[in-house]
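Colleagues,

For the teaching module next term, I've prepared a clean inverse folding example: a structure given as tokens, and then the sequence designed for it. I'd like students to try predicting residues themselves before seeing the answer, so please don't circulate the second half yet.
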């Protein structure tokens, strides 16, 4: 997309192009888009490259067939000063801001060159310099009689200006820190509490995992030895005979010894040594 504006000149002076380039460079710098490169491709054309736009300033002859209609009080210009803005990133370029920037450039060009008419965008209608400048000064426009032949063009020029004035600028675009301090503190407190709760849960899980393997098997092993000793004692009481009783007494003694060694942890310690 390209935004184009033209100024009708009374005469084609050699210093018109340099004055126009100076006004455009100052406008870009004031709006936060300083020119990074200026190139003169021809004697009547200059191109300026900035961060978001490619600006072309061209001094050209008036075509034989003009599509723009001039007001009745304006004479046919002898030359045209054409100004065009091409966004470097069309998908991320605001149309209203670009039109406002173009309007401001044309306004400043009227102070640098002698112009008779202004063509805004592709409306095919030319305005007098007074009609174009009245958009920037509504109070002056109310004092002057409304003799504009292009009444439909003026609202299109005024719309970007009004929209730009309603938008916040500078520090107004940001919320004060005092209004968000309480919400930020509450958010930080919740985040810290969640971190502490996660740490406590991990510590509890690690402690339970560390105590479970050593305590549970020992209890099960003692319970098994107790049952085995009880069964051996019942067998000794139920069976008769001296030899069998002596054998059972030895079994009881060995079982008691094994139970003692297991309770002291010596059996578990000797298990890795057994093949």
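(Answer key — instructors only)
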């Amino acid at each position: 997309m390209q935004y184009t504006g033209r100024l009708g000149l009374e005469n084609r002076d050699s210093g018109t192009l340099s004055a126009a380039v100076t006004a455009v460079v100052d406008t870009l710098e004031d709006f936060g888009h300083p020119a990074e490169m200026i190139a003169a491709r021809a004697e009547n054309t200059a191109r300026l490259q900035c961060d978001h736009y490619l600006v072309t300033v061209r001094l050209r002859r008036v075509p034989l067939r003009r599509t723009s209609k001039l007001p009745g009080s304006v004479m046919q210009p002898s030359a045209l000063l054409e100004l065009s803005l091409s966004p470097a990133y069309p998908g991320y370029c605001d149309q209203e801001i670009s039109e406002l920037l173009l309007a401001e450039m044309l306004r400043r060009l009227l102070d640098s060159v002698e112009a008779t008419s202004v063509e805004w965008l592709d409306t095919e209608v030319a305005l007098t310099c007074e009609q174009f400048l009245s958009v920037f000064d509504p109070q002056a426009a109310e004092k002057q009689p409304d003799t504009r032949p292009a009444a439909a063009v003026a609202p299109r020029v005024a719309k970007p200006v009004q929209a730009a004035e309603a938008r916040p600028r500078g520090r107004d675009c940001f919320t004060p820190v005092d209004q968000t301090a309480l919400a930020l503190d509450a958010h930080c407190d919740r985040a810290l509490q969640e971190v502490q709760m996660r740490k406590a849960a991990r510590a509890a899980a690690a402690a339970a995992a560390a105590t479970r393997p050593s305590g549970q098997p020992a209890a099960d092993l003692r319970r098994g030895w107790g049952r085995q000793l009880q069964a051996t004692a019942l067998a000794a009481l139920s069976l008769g005979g001296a030899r069998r009783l002596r054998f059972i007494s030895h079994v009881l003694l060995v079982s008691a010894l094994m139970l003692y060694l297991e309770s002291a942890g010596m059996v578990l310690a000797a298990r890795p040594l057994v093949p």
